[in-house]
Amino acid sequence: MKQLFFTLLVFNLSFSQSTTSVEKSIFGVQTGILGIWMHNETRLSDEISLRTELGLDFGIQGNDNSTTTAMIPSLRLEPRWYYNLEKRVKKGRKTANNSGNFLAVNTTYNPDWFIISNKDNVSIISTLAFVPKWGIKRTLGNHFTYEAGFGIGTFIVLNDYEVDNKVAVDLHLRIGYTF
User: Fold this and answer.
1) Which CATH architecture has domain 25-178?
2) Residues 72, 57, 61, CA angle at the centre, nearest 5°?
3) What is the rounded distance in angstroms from the CA atom of residue 116 to the CA atom of residue 121?
4) Distance (Å, rounded) from C-alpha 99 to C-alpha 138?
């Protein structure tokens, strides 16, 4: 009888422990020095989420005579692996709203659909970027978040005449609100 009781107790304890996991779905807005974005993070597994993002990236170009500023559309798809969630829980730290360190592959498409600029007749060439990166995300209170990340990858200039690969650097510092 004691063995049965002990077996049932161990079995119950092993299944009653909750595993730490990324949130099922998070909607939010973020802003930084270089734009404003709406995003959704959807859980794919306990440690992996898929972030989709729609926003406006800020750009600036200048010469001796004038400076041109522009906001261009940005579409992002970014799988994220939050690799330290269990460690954060063991240390008593928050994991709400996917607070943790992550590795990601950022895929960004900047189309030439429209441009908001301080000058007339400004155009861009559409680009597609692939950047592996490391980042952190933290929650302040219940809804406010901040993120920082860095990565180096490549971007492709998409025009009618040629396809040209260039080096892309992704450095982001953002604050946001999750709903």
Assistant:
1) Beta Barrel (2.40)
2) 75
3) 10
4) 4
Residue 38 contacts by C-beta under 8 Å, 6 or more apart in sequence? Answer: 27, 28, 29, 53, 54, 55
For the record, the structure tokens of 135 come out as 């980042």
For residue 4, the model assigns a pLDDT of: 41
Q: What percent of the chain has pLDDT over 70?
A: 87
**Contact predicate 80/52, CB 8 Å:** no
Beta bridge partners of 87: none
* Selection from 107, 122, 41, 119 nearest residue 74 by Cα: 107
Euclidean distance between CA atoms 38 and 53, whole angstroms = 6
* Residues 177 and 145: beta-carbon distance below 8 Å: yes
Whether residue 56 contacts residue 30, with contact meaning beta carbons closer than 8 Å, is answered with no
Model-level pTM? Answer: 0.82
Give me the long-range contacts of 91-96 (CB less than 8 A, separation at least 24). Answer: 94/138, 94/139, 95/20, 96/23, 96/139, 96/142
| pLDDT score at 120 | 87
Identify the residue whose tokens are 């929650």: 139
| Per-residue pLDDT, 158 | 83
